[in-house]
Structures are given as structure tokens and as C-alpha cells.
Design goal:
Chain lengths: ~80, ~375
């Protein structure tokens, strides 16, 4: 189902809608480096901690995608080899 | 041995320049034993919409012969002329092995492993990808769009890394929502089948291309999703990548590494930075707060001194979001289970800010004030 864009509402609030792609970061050497540094430092200091929901085996990939689409995870789904 | 077909479909933009290419190629084809089967712009429509394009089909004795021809010095010398004078694509098509069945002689070269499927369609990139073939390893791919069951594990030849690629022995793979959308052919680009999938992985570099200087064999790395899924993927045991990796300090488990996607972090970081300078420093992560992107955004917002607002649809995740650092969590059990992207997918009610235990929180007030539903209004108050 598509929603019509609420034009009048947007005028009233002067809403800005912007698409975002990871390429804005990864496509630019300086930004990419800044992002990688930020993540690396954050992980090292403990300010950023990965949250892992569940770990699967590679052979169960079909099951992994079913689980992903149930949207019941809290954090990252990881597959190990 | 199946025959190989060199197939071109292009729109000529500079006829004079193209003429130079057209007249020089037949000799190169002949030198590699190729036969021009089709050449020209006269496609007679039978059904469907046929764009006006020049199409060329050249038959070679084997797919390898097509590659030899394509990568030959003589062809590579004129190929830039074609690129300049036209738009379109060139690919290698692999013939069926019918002839051996028709003649009644069993083909000795037919692969004995049923899992060892040939790729029937292979794009020839304009940079030389790899020359040597190596061992076979499991690799996840799918041949058509659909539910999770379209995924199958096949054994595949692993090419040596191209000049600017590194090859990774994969230890752990992080799963993304995008891969489910990709599998359903509902993503920002469409898969070319059979397609691989996967953006994130962590592992150990096991080979590097000749032009790679910043990574070495044995380096522990995780990937940055700066590539098209049609070119690279991570669901598999061994993968070549462009140099979009980051080196990791040792001592972080592979499982943890693979779970840190750069996209998770950067989306949050970008928002947090923008808000931080403003008074109040709020970060509103509207939906999917329990996804890895949402949780990363919460951590980044806290780290940057902003206040994350986490929204979730189910009440059982509310407590966990609080524990994860989401200062303000809302659950909205009445939200419809709509499609992602649907404006009513999550429908927070009007909220107002309270002071509680020294922390600002939001709690729910009368819904009647805002019947139109899906807008979340936050009244601005001075920071105390």
C-alpha cells in the first residue's frame, strides 16, 4: 500500500525528506577513514559494543533468512563457518 | 566441452569511431578460432519490446577461448574504442552440451558432482579479474527471487584475487535486512542470476592481488559494504573483495567483528552529530530500534551526548531497549503490522516529556489530541 505524500502538512512543518545511502560514506576516502576510526576506537574503548542476537551455522542459511524475516531479533544475527 | 559465445548488445554513440573498432575486430576473432554468427542491428520483433541496438554473437570452441580472445592484447587494444563509441554490455554466454547427447557419445567432461553447476551467464568486467582457478568451496547463492528456500549452497571455483582485490577466508557473517530484500528482488538494484549475497563478514586474508599494498596474507579483517552485491558477496567460505576492508585489532572475536557493520554505525553517527549541536540534543530513531542499526544508533547517540528515543512495536523488547541504553522507549502494541516503509507501520501516540529519576523520559498521554496518528510530537522544553 502506498501512502500519498501529505503535501500541506509538509508545507506547514517545512519537512525535509532525504534518502540516505552508505555510499555517501564509503564512496569518500576521508569520510570512510573517519568512520572506520570512529568504530575502531569505540570498540576498543568499550563505548560501542556489538549486540548479538543469535549465532547460526552456515548450512542453516535458509533458516537464518526465515528467522530474519520474523523480525523477532534483538541485535545482529551472525552465521559462523 | 560446451561452446562459448561472445555476445555484445550496444547502442552506438559515435559511428565514425565505432567503424575503426568494427573493421579491426574480425581478424582478432579469426586468430582465436571464432566465427561471427550474428552481426547487425536488424532484430525482428516476435514479442516484447526490442530496443534498437547493435548485436553481435561470435561462437568460440570453448568459454575459455572467449576469455582468451577478450583478454588478448590485440582485443584489449581496441576495446577502449568500443567503450568510447557505444553504450551497452558485453558478456560470455556458455552453450549447452546438447551435441554430445545427440551424437550418442557420453560426454566425459560433464561434471560428476551435481552441485558443481556452471554459471550460465558471466559478465566480462573491463578489468581483468583473475586468471588462475583454485579450489572449490561452498558458497551460498540463489537462481531466482523468492522466499528463503531459493537459497542453496553450491560448490564453486574460487578465483585468485584480481589486482585490487583481497581474498578472505570467512570466519563469521553478519546478516542484514538488505539481503532478504535482495533475495526477493526488492532492493536498490536487481540481482543477476545466479546471484550471491551478503555484505558483512569477518575473517582472515588468505591471498592479495598484485596491486594491494595495505593488506597482507594473515591480516584479520572485516568488510565495508562499499560494493554491488552483483559483484561481490560474503555468504561463503572464501571470497574475493575489493580493498574495502578494515583491519582489526586482534583480540576481538570474529563473531563480534562480523556483527559490527559500518552502515549501522554511520547512520547513527551522522544523525547524532547533527543533533548534538542543538540544544537538547535529541536523537530520534523512529523505527526498528531493536535492529543492529537501531542498537548501534542508541550507543552512538549516548556516546555523542545525545538522547536516543527508541521506538519498538512489541512490549517485550521495551525493557531490553532500556537496558541497551535507549533512554526513552515507547512501545505501541496497537501498531499495525504493516509493510516496511508504510507510514503507518509504526504509529506512536502523542507523547509528552516528564522528569523522572533525573532522566528525561517520555510517556504517553491522551491519544485524542492527535487522531491523525502517525506523527510523533515532542514539545520542546528547556534542559534543566
Amino acid at each position: 500500500m502506498t501512502q500519498p505524500i501529505p503535501v500541506l502538512e509538509m508545507i506547514r512543518k517545512m519537512t525535509i525528506v532525504k534518502g540516505y545511502s552508505i555510499r555517501l560514506v564509503t564512496g569518500d576516502e576521508a569520510r570512510r577513514k573517519a568512520a572506520v576510526d570512529y568504530v575502531s576506537k569505540g570498540l576498543a574503548s568499550g563505548a560501542l559494543t556489538p549486540v548479538i542476537d543469535r549465532i547460526f551455522k552456515f548450512d542453516d542459511m535458509v533458516e537464518v533468512h526465515r528467522y530474519l524475516e520474523n523480525s523477532s531479533q534483538f541485535g545482529k544475527i551472525v552465521v559462523t563457518l | 566441452m560446451p561452446k562459448g559465445y561472445f555476445f555484445i548488445e550496444i547502442e552506438i554513440t559515435d559511428p565514425a569511431a565505432y567503424e575503426v573498432y568494427r573493421t579491426s575486430v574480425p581478424d582478432i576473432i579469426a586468430a582465436h578460432g571464432g566465427r561471427i554468427l550474428v552481426r547487425g542491428e536488424d532484430a525482428q520483433p516476435l514479442d516484447g519490446v526490442i530496443p534498437h541496438r547493435r548485436r553481435v554473437i561470435v561462437e568460440f570452441d570453448s568459454p575459455e577461448a572467449v576469455k582468451d580472445f577478450y583478454h588478448s592484447e590485440a582485443y584489449q587494444a581496441v576495446q577502449p574504442i568500443r567503450l568510447k563509441a557505444s553504450n551497452g554490455f558485453v558478456c560470455l554466454l556458455i552453450g549447452t552440451e546438447q551435441t554430445s547427447h545427440l551424437s550418442g557419445t557420453p560426454s566425459l567432461e560433464a561434471p560428476s558432482l551435481p552441485a558443481l553447476r556452471r554459471r550460465p551467464f558471466e559478465l566480462l568486467p573491463d578489468t581483468v579479474p583473475s586468471t588462475q582457478r583454485k579450489h572449490h568451496v561452498p558458497h551460498d547463492q540463489f537462481a531466482q527471487a523468492g522466499g528463503p528456500e531459493v537459497l542453496e549452497i553450491i560448490e564453486m571455483e574460487v578465483p585468485a584475487p584480481g589486482p585490487h582485490e583481497v581474498r578472505i577466508k570467512v570466519k563469521a557473517i553478519g546478516i542484514n535486512r538488505a539481503e532478504s530484500m535482495w533475495r526477493n528482488d526488492k532492493y536498490v538494484e536487481s540481482p543477476i542470476f545466479p546471484a550471491g549475497l551478503g555484505y558483512d563478514c569477518a575473517g582472515v586474508v588468505d591471498a592479495v592481488g598484485k596491486d594491494v599494498t595495505d593488506f597482507a596474507v594473515g591480516d584479520t579483517v572485516s568488510t565495508i559494504p562499499a560494493f554491488s552485491l552483483n559483484k561481490y558477496s560474503t555468504y561463503g567460505e572464501v571470497h574475493s573483495r575489493p580493498r574495502s576492508c578494515r583491519r582489526e585489532a586482534s583480540g576481538i572475536a570474529f563473531v563480534r567483528r562480523s556483527s559490527v557493520g559500518l552502515d549501522d554505525v554511520h547512520d547513527g553517527l551522522r544523525r547524532a552529530r547533527r543533533r548534538r549541536s542543538r540544544e537538547g540534543g535529541r536523537l530520534r530513531h523512529h523505527s526498528a530500534a531493536s535492529s543492529s542499526v537501531g542498537l548501534a544508533a542508541i550507543q552512538i547517540a549516548n556516546h555523542a551526548g545525545a538522547t536516543p528515543i527508541a521506538l519498538t512495536r512489541t512490549s517485550d523488547k521495551k525493557k531490553r531497549l532500556h537496558e541497551a541504553g535507549g533512554n526513552i522507549c515507547r512501545c505501541n502494541p496497537k501498531a499495525r503490522h504493516g509493510r516496511r516503509g508504510d507510514a503507518h507501520h509504526q504509529r506512536p501516540r502523542r507523547t509528552r516529556r516528564l522528569r523522572s529519576r533525573g532522566r528525561r523520559r517520555l510517556c504517553q498521554t491522551d491519544r485524542s489530541a492527535d487522531r491523525s496518528g502517525h506523527r510523533l510530537h515532542l514539545r520542546r522544553t528547556e534542559r534543566g
